[in-house]
Amino acid sequence: MKFDLRTLVLTVGLCFLSRPTHGAGTYLQVEHPPSTATNQLQIGVTYTMWVPDDVARFRCVIVHQHGAGRTAAEKGATAAYDLHWQALAKKWDCALLGPSYHVLTDAIDASPGGSELWFDPRRGSDEAFLQALDELSAQAKHPELATVPWALWGHSGGGIWSDVMTTRHPDRVAAVFLRSGSFRNRPDFPQPQSPDAAYAVPVMGNAGVKEQERGAWTNTLARVREYRSKGGPAGFAPDPRTGHETGDSRYLAIPYFDTCLAMRLPTNGSNDQNLKPMDMSKAWLAPFLGQTAVPASSYKGNPLEAVWLPDEQVARIWTEYVKNGTVADVTPPRAPFNVRVTSRGNGGNEITWDAEADFESGVGGFFVMRDDQALARLPTMTPLGVYGRPLFQGLSYHDTPEGPPAPPEMRYLDVSAKPGEKHTYSILTINSAGVTSEPSAGVPIPSP
Question: Model-level pTM greater than 0.90?
Fold first, then answer.
């Protein structure tokens, strides 16, 4: 079957029901009101956790922490619903957690309603986070979720939070990705002390070249240099295409976590939850702000003044990312499955399906096929304000799906189909790099 995807024209009478796809997992949620007690969290917060199905014992919690301000908090509320990040969580038997803090203002200090009230964990968000894990583990009926390690991703204020949490719980943190955020050298922010154990945690700093005059760049870079001066496993990836927005950073962050979790998580099925040390023998090194990495054994400069990368695979991805601000992908995603067709009489035919995100490039969208002909591409139009490669769920400034929080749903209504007509439908997945899957199995309209 061959067709020209670029010349696909949506005809009148086709309708996409833009309700976001059924994920193979469960969404859990707890909400904490603001406290008036000293040293407790004075900002309300909602914790949303996605847990994949059929996990006997969870191994880690991946935390996707939004940045400072009201918009960041609103957009951060969708983090746990992200199909691409869910693919990482599912691979490693992890839960995916997206906290959303109910800030009242856009202030980034500790004034009433300001974001520093939460992004400094010493002001109560540490204790609230631990309590939420207890509550969510009870909901999930998986008590280990309260005690397993964490992988911390943070943007801006979320990077500050992740950085400070690493100093407070270094034995719990498997890896950290700091997108434009660190506490180091931040004016008027009481600087926490970093215990020696914190410098054993793998860290990737990442910031946009267009924000070089901002503290987000200088502080993140300074923190990584500090790690390296102490021999810590830390890297820095300048994003050549962006400012403070997250852009396509997920195409570096997800494989980075993938490699670190492979090295650090306790053996699957074991009751031992102690993290393993990073395997430093596989490391690659690169000059700070450079674009070429080599095996550590071949590096000619001072290794303590070089970017550290955990292995060859991440080094190659890092090299492409720092040059292009994204990472190419030519591998096709998995075909959709569980395609279901229901006749709605004069209302047309309803098609629903399930799909898993391509691990490398997520879900960019779908093609609906009728009788082996391309009927529609979903979504039907590129959303406004795209901050990276377009995704089926949209992509915000904050690396989260656009739209209201909701479990994603995949559905299409072919209203051009007439009652009694015989048609067979199939679905193709398109990843964000534009590579299509094989078509799903064709499903005919069921007989009345």
Answer: yes
